């Protein structure tokens, strides 16, 4: 295969993320609700019966199923399943920036409006509590920021003889920044806080 054949083979290709098919993909919805003529953000408290992150505060959402046509559909579907609401009450769903996470996760966040809170019937298998926080609280409150240092620990059978420096190789370590918001007796952190901060930054840009 010569260079011309290679160029012709690749010229119309649309780039994606390397290893995209192997990534675990999820979609979440940042729900806006109106309470007493004020915009609030709705949060869930994960059931203590869940295997992953029980008791954490999150947005509605979950894994993108193979049969879902796109991430937006997944975010809406998961929201209806977790909150027990009809899809017709979810409106104006718009994408935020997607997030490439550690450990091979890809998150597609969306923002949208829930127009009827009286229909809420949270699924107790997944949601132990639902609460709202005025949007103004986050607009006027900077998150607390803390660093988590990540350490490189090669397996016992790692082939040090194949790399320059061997066992003395200077691994590049790094850290992740965790964000925390507090509201009354609630603590919002982790991925939820990252999406929330991104959303507030977009509002401040406009």
Task: Summarize this structure as a short list of keywords or feature phrases.
Nucleoside Triphosphate Pyrophosphohydrolase, alpha+beta, 36% strand, 206 residues
Describe this structure in words.
By secondary structure, the chain is an alpha+beta fold. The protein has a domain at 19-139 and 183-205: Nucleoside Triphosphate Pyrophosphohydrolase, CATH 3.90.79.10. Helices cover 20% and strands 36% of the residues. It has helices spanning 3-10, 71-83, 135-139, 190-205; strands spanning 24-35, 38-46, 57-58, 61-63, 90-95, 99-101, 105-114, 127-134, 144-150, 174-183, 186-189. The strands form two sheets. Strands 1, 2, 3, 4, 5, 6, 7 and 8 form an eight-stranded mixed sheet that branches. It has a three-stranded antiparallel sheet with strand order 9-10-11. It is globular, with a radius of gyration of 21 Å. The mean pLDDT is 92. InterPro entries: CoAse, NUDIX_hydrolase-like_dom_sf, NUDIX_hydrolase_dom. This is Coenzyme A pyrophosphatase. Keywords: Hydrolase, Magnesium, Manganese, Metal-binding. Residues 22-154 form the Nudix hydrolase domain. One of its GO terms (molecular function) is metal ion binding.
């Amino acid at each position: 295969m010569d260079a011309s054949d290679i160029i012709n083979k690749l010229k119309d290709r649309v780039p994606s993320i390397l290893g995209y098919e192997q990534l675990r993909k999820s979609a979440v919805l940042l729900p806006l609700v109106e309470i007493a003529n004020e915009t609030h953000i709705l949060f869930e408290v994960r059931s203590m019966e869940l295997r992953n992150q029980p008791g954490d505060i999150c947005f509605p959402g979950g894994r993108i199923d193979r049969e879902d046509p796109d991430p937006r559909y997944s975010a809406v579907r998961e929201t209806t399943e977790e909150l027990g609401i009809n899809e017709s009450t979810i409106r104006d769903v718009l994408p935020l920036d997607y997030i490439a996470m550690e450990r091979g996760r890809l998150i597609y966040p969306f923002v949208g409006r829930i127009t009827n809170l009286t229909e809420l019937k949270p699924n107790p298998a997944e949601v132990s509590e639902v609460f709202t926080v005025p949007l103004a609280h986050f607009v006027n409150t900077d998150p607390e920021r803390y660093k988590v240092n990540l350490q490189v620990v090669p397996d016992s059978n790692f082939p040090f003889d194949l790399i320059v420096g061997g066992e003395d190789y200077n691994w590049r370590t790094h850290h992740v920044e965790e964000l925390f918001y507090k509201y009354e007796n609630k603590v919002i952190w982790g991925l939820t806080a990252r999406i929330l901060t991104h959303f507030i930054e977009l509002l401040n840009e406009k």
